[in-house]
Design brief:
Layout (H helix, E strand, L loop, with lengths): L1 E2 L12 H14 L6 H14 L15 H13 L5 E5 L7 H16 L3 E5 L3 H6 L22
Parallel strand pairs: 1-2, 2-3
Helix pairs in contact: 1-2, 1-3
Amino acid sequence: GTVFQDPEHQLLRTTVRDELEVGPRALQRAGRGPSDAQIAARTDDLLERLRLAPLARANPYTLSGGEKRRLTVAAALATSPRVLVLDEPTFGQDARTWAELVALLAALRGEGGAIVAVTHDEAVVAALHAERFALAAPAGMDEGAGEAS
């Protein structure tokens, strides 16, 4: 699974609930997915845990930035991926939702999944007991060098 930095770049459906079901339904059509009941249960669980249940029928584009972020992380988690790549997964979250996101990511890791996250949030790295890799521009290179004009 993948979570982009800008949540709007990966929204596909017209309701929050439908967005969470995209991945599981695709797996189901391919003959590898969960049953309808399992999809509904997983969707309900993610909606509750990430405080999106009151927004289940809302259009994803009408959500706040933090809500969109939670939705895209939840949609990626809905398929129980073996590898999850995230860009700033906790950006814009309050303490309660931050903790729930970290718990969901930790659960994925605990089930043998791999997580690759690009983040400035050192606390999430520590909470997940993750290895840290830092990338920096070579010495003497301007920060904006190499960017398209």
